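Table S4 entry, Phosphofructokinase.
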Amino acid sequence: MDDARTRLRADIAALADLPVFVAYNANVDAIVRVDDGLGPVLERPSEPGVRSPPSPLASTRDLATAITHTMATGQGDEIAMTDALADRLESSLSPDRQQLGGQTGIMTDLCASLGAAPITYTYLLSERQCSQFDHPDAVRYPIVEDGQIRFVPLCEAEPADRTKINWVFEFRAGDELFGVRATEDTRFIAASRPPEFDLHAGTLDDAIDQVGEAVDGALLAGYHNLTPEHVEAGYEDAHRHAREVIRRLRTGGTVDVHIEYVAAHDDDLRASIYEWILPEANVIGVDTRELAVLSDDAGLDSRGNGPTAETPFDETEILAHYRLLDALRADLGVACIRLHAMEYHLAVLDSYLPPDAVRRGLEFAAINAATKASRGEITAPSDLRTGLEYGPSAQGREAIERLAEYVDEPVDDGTLCTPTVVACPNRVVDDPAGTVGIGDIVSASSFLLELAVATDRDGTST
């Protein structure tokens, strides 16, 4: 434990004042616990737990269909809803609590909480949303004046007059709605899609190279926030514009780009992201469901991609994950794809960063994940001591041993670290305080530490 604490202190020290750009999607999450009080607010679906939900969600019946389907499958999901349904939920539902949401919101908050120096851009930055950040004064916001960027404290940016709200319906295994019993602890997200989230950031787009001059890396997400109603010229034009912004960002300096993937239900939207956005990444972050969707879209065989309610954990599933990640990395031409699974974290790479930097990032991410799951939040570096109280997953170690045999490489203390594949066991919390945002926490924490270690910010060599 003493060695682990020493490593953790070194990792936290390495992140001090690390400059990173984070964009584009932030919102307020309205959290609703699925219980007996929710049913009367919704219209009963025709086949609870069986019928797949439509996209977008246009009624409370559609919403009930989506929630019960997620409860039955045991896999968290997110589907866009119409503006009309978003308005209806805000007028008829009272959340149990509210918190900062969206990949960009969650990752920015983590960056600031761990002592890094985030520069953040998002749309509709309202006073209500700004109040959800734990350390708003530690976050800078880019303002363009006469073609020059000036960075100001987050809440000094001109506030929007309304807020993007996502509704998050959380449930535990055994919870019931319309006769459907939840098979796992997870959640369903009904996501709003305001027209402002069109991947155009006004004058910032033309000056984004100045942001590139000020940062070492970028955590980008929100490319799935488009809808046909709000993008008249089509997904391709919006994503081609976003691609050019990423390229312009890099002209300002050496900027590694992490893209956090979200599997939208719109086939055309996913195809556009795959063609125009993902190939621009240095590293892509996915969970097991997103990996399956990506693999299917790419024409790869993703059967056996992960455990289900009917199939308990099998350590050999890591082999399928490894093969799919390797094939996707080659198909997209990116340097690294990282997977956050329940029992382990896995990265397949090719000349992205030194493997030891990636290993340290994954191990750090496991501590962050356990802390977030146990406490429900990470607001200061000292919180991470909680994550050390949870040991590495025994099932994760078994899976990594199986992968090591497959690639004919040794395992060191449960971790596999080679120039092309890195894996470490997760630290699993059996009774999590919440499930929303843990994947974003994993991706952000691993990427931050990889950057810090690779640039030797802590004074040690990799």
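The first strand starts at residue 19 and ends at 23.
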